[in-house]
Amino acid sequence: MKRSSLTLAASVAAGALLALGAPLAASAHVSVEPAATSAGSYTVLTFSNAHGCDGSPTTGITIDIPQGIDSVSPTINPGWTAAKVMDGDRVGQVTYTASTPLEDGYRTTFALSLQLPADAEGETLAFPVLQSCEVGETSWSEPTVDGEEEPEHPAPTVTVTEASSDEHGHAGASDSEADTAVTTETTAASSSQSNSGDVLARVLGIGGLAVGAVGIVLAITARRKTSA
C-alpha cells in the first residue's frame, strides 16, 4: 500500500511539473499577437520577449518583414530606438536598440502597425526575429511544421484568415454610430428641456392660482370688517 501511494504521488507530481513546464516553455519564445487576422486588414502586431540569451541581457531586436507587406510603422518604445531597414521600395526589417540592456526575466513588447497582403488568405506568414544580447544572440527563425515537434527557436507566425467584407467600412460605421449617438443625445436634451419648461409653467400656474385665491380671501375679509 505504501509503495502504491508513493507511486501515485510521484505520478501526480510529474504530471504537475509537465503541466507547469508547458506554459513556461511557451513563454520562453518570442511570440506575436494576434496569432491570426484577416487578409488585407490593417492591424498592429505585438511581439513580446521576456528573456535574454542564456541569461545575458537583451540589447537589440530585429524583426524581418515578409514579402507582400510594403509599409510598416513601428511603435516607439521608451528606452529603445527604432529604425526601418529598407529592401528596395519596401521595409525589409525593423530594428529596436536598447538604450539600457534589458535584463533577463523582464518582459517588453514591440508593436508594428501594418497591412497584411490581400492575396495571402490561408497562408501563415513568418516574422523571423534576431535577438542580440550583451553576450551572444538568438535567431528565432526556425519554421514550425504541422505534425512535427516545435523547433527550439521557432519564428513568430501570423495566420492569414479570410478577408472581411467590411474590412474598410469600420470608420464609416463608427462615424454613423457617432452621428446617431449625437442625434439621440440632442433629442434627449431637447426633450428634457421641453419637459422642464412644462413643469415650470405648471408650477407658475399653480402658484398664480394660489396667490389669486389668497387675494380673494383677503378682499372678502376686508369687506366683512368694513360692514361690521
From TrEMBL:
Endpoints of the signal sequence: 1-28
Transmembrane segments: 199-222
Keyword field contains Signal: yes
Compositional bias per record (Low complexity), positions renumbered to this chain: 179-192
Region (Disordered): 137-196
Domain YncI copper-binding residue range list: 29-160
Keyword annotations from UniProtKB, A to Z: Membrane, Signal, Transmembrane, Transmembrane helix
Name used for this protein in its record: DUF1775 domain-containing protein
Protein's organism: Cryobacterium frigoriphilum
